[in-house]
Amino acid sequence: MELNQQGKICFQEEYTLFGISYSDALQSLKEHIPEYRDVKIILSDETGDLIVGFFTESRDQRHYNRTLKLFKKNFAEWILTPPNISLERLFFQTMSERKFHVSTAESCTGGLLAARIINVSGSSSIIEEAFITYSEQAKMKVLGVSESILRRHGVVSEESAGEMARCLKKLTECELCVSITGLAGPTGGTEATPVGTVCFGFAFFDEVKTFRQWFSGDRNAVRAKAASYALAQSLVLLKNQNAR
Predict the structure, then answer these.
(1) How far does CA 107 lie from the centroid of its chain?
(2) Distance separating alpha carbons of residues 105 and 165, to the nearest angstrom
(3) Which of 71, 67, 45 is nearest to 225 (CA)?
(4) What confidence score (pLDDT) does residue 3 get?
């Protein structure tokens, strides 16, 4: 609770969503969340994260509390963070609690993922190494990725992303190793692999998972969304591992 510029009491909460698109989230908000004049709802993916925010300048919190209750009920499967906690902060807290370490190997994101992790004070306790392996040669020379995999499947492929993560795991021995390779554009896309395609690899203990996503927007938007996806998917893997 804080005071706005007019001196009115303002209640505010923000949540990061994952696993739902901006358009689907907007449609669901319109269908399930009533529009009260004293409650404002903002949905944004401008930073790469899909964030929904609620705030009111009214001292009477009845509508505000009801709005939040309906939101939590209808969006339960997509709410990734507690209120007002960023993805990187939650990632840091989760990794720290388990005394896990992470290393990254990025191509199209050019270090954005590592930068977000390092944004959090104390991150030196969880991050070991961060590589920007932009070229094919760097992927082979620094990480030890097989040239045959790059040639057979293409640099932007789940197979190459998985191999990047697997090689990074051997190199750093971290519990979690994350790789990103993609086409941020505006050129270089094909019909099979359009601009905005990004592939991810996650080597988590003895298991390697890969994902292929397509992100809309310009070059910077694709890069930001890719870094956000890598953080969010890492949190999902951590959550699932804890549930075993």
Answers:
(1) 16
(2) 7
(3) 45
(4) 38
Rounded CA separation 146/136 (Å) = 10
Distance CA 220, CA 224 (A): 6
Give the Å distances, CA to CA, from 181 to 44, 130, 160: 25, 14, 8
Measured at the CA of 116, the angle between CA 77 and CA 144, to 5 degrees, comes to 100
Return the structure tokens found at 93.
Answer: 């807290």
End-to-end CA distance of the chain: 37
> Which domains are delineated in the chain?
2-74 (3.30.70), 87-242 (3.90.950.20)
Give the number of other CB atoms < 10 A from CB of residue 56. Answer: 21
The tens digit of pLDDT for each residue in 215-237 reads 999 999 999 999 999 999 999 99
User: Is the pLDDT reported for residue 114 higher than 90?
Assistant: yes
What CA–CA distances, in Å, run from 50 to 24, 40, 42, 190?
A: 11, 17, 11, 27
244 pLDDT above the threshold of 80: no
Give pLDDT, residue 211: 98
Beta carbons of 117 and 92 less than 8 angstroms apart? yes
Residue type present at position 45: D
Q: What is the pLDDT of residue 242?
A: 66
Q: What angle do CA 101, 226, 100 make, to 5 degrees?
A: 10
Please give the model's pTM, rounded to 2 decimal places: 0.94
The pLDDT of 56-61, averaged and rounded, is 88
- Amino acid residing at 131: F
Query: What pLDDT, on a 0 to 100 scale, did the predictor assign at position 175?
Result: 97
DSSP state of 54: E
Residue 76 backbone dihedrals phi, psi, to 5 degrees: -50, -40
Q: Looking at this protein, which amino acid is placed at residue 161? A: A
